[in-house]
């Protein structure tokens, strides 16, 4: 008996580099950037418009649209670079807190379609302001059934079957 078709199909949104992607251009050293740390697979640099002092972005050198399009092999080098830079920021700047943010999609404020992680050192009275808690809490009725559905999906679906646009 054949296995059932996947609920969601896969789309490969990973490429070596895109000529017009601003982050791929930074990787190729075609545009200037204040590079903080670099490995064979990752690059950490200051954004053009930092939210706070020390705000750093970490990217994979391969063009990956967002964390939802990453492959398991992409996660370890990205995670290790994020940890190394985060520890450096903590030791050098001594912030009172830190945000780790990665947005996927326009609704989440992703402005460059190349996977990137923001490490944002935070101080109580910085210009960023509060991110959490939300101004209007989500009603329990909206969350009803979501936890069970997520648990089921996480336990049964493979990463290859993850593109909701094909749903």
UniProtKB/TrEMBL annotation:
GO terms for molecular function: catalytic activity. A motif (Histidine triad motif) lies at residues 114-118. InterPro entries: Histidine_triad_HIT, HIT-like, HIT-like_sf. GO terms for biological process: nucleotide metabolic process. The active site is at residue 116. Residues 22-129 form the HIT domain. PANTHER family: ADENOSINE 5'-MONOPHOSPHORAMIDASE HNT1, HIT FAMILY PROTEIN 1. This is HIT family protein.
